[in-house]
Design a protein that fits this description.
Elements: H1 2-16, H2 23-36, H3 40-57, H4 63-78, H5 82-100, H6 105-120, H7 124-140, H8 146-162, H9 166-179, H10 187-192
Helix pairs in contact: 1-2, 2-3, 2-4, 3-4, 4-5, 4-6, 5-6, 6-7, 7-8, 8-9
Length: about 190
């Protein structure tokens, strides 16, 4: 897939030039593929090119820029750079909040990302606040996404464990376990167990 994506990017660049706004999507897609392959420095470069083009042509508050920033945050989180992940995810959250309002699913997802960074930084109160807000947003959706709710409950349980709040941990983890996919081998169920 990467080889085809790189060929497509090369062809598109030769056809429309290196600074055409249409390239931001291609750069982002190649960046995501490189990230999946663990080639993080190359992925960073591609995602930064996508973000630069989107800022130039779409503006500082475009929805696609928020998507790219989210992807950059994921990359930095996976690379063990929670401070960088937090910066990207904070800006994506600000864009989604301004564009969609506080009850939109994208805002809930962005708050869930912020919680991950705060957990990685050991900022449990901030993480708990963001998870609770994300959980509220997930539950308000027309068709709530059970997996997101399960992950939020699991994370709240893990925070309670770190604080040695055993009753609260049990409450959240039991709620997550009750809604987790059946079968002890399922990864989401294993994360609760």
């Amino acid at each position: 897939a990467l080889e085809w994506a790189l060929r497509g990017l090369e062809t598109l660049t030769a056809t429309i030039g290196p600074r055409h706004p249409s390239l931001s999507t291609s750069y982002s897609n190649v960046g995501l593929l490189l990230e999946e392959l663990g080639r993080l420095s190359e992925a960073r470069e591609m995602l930064e090119k996508a973000a630069d083009l989107e800022r130039e042509y779409g503006g500082e508050d475009s929805a696609f820029l928020a998507d790219v920033l989210t992807n950059q945050g994921v990359l930095e989180s996976q690379a063990g750079n929670p401070e960088a992940a937090l910066r990207y995810w904070q800006r994506a959250y600000e864009i989604w909040l301004a564009r969609q309002g506080p009850t939109h699913p994208d805002v809930a997802l962005a708050r869930g990302n912020l919680a991950v960074a705060y957990l990685d930084l050991g900022r449990l109160e901030d993480a708990e606040r963001e998870i609770e807000a994300a959980l509220e947003g997930y539950q308000m959706q027309d068709v709530p996404e059970p997996l997101l709710i399960l992950r939020a409950r699991t994370n709240l349980g893990h925070i309670a464990i770190r604080r040695e709040e055993w009753a609260k941990a049990r409450e959240h983890l039991n709620a997550a376990l009750a809604m987790s996919p059946s079968g002890d081998q399922h990864p989401e169920r294993a994360s609760v167990l």
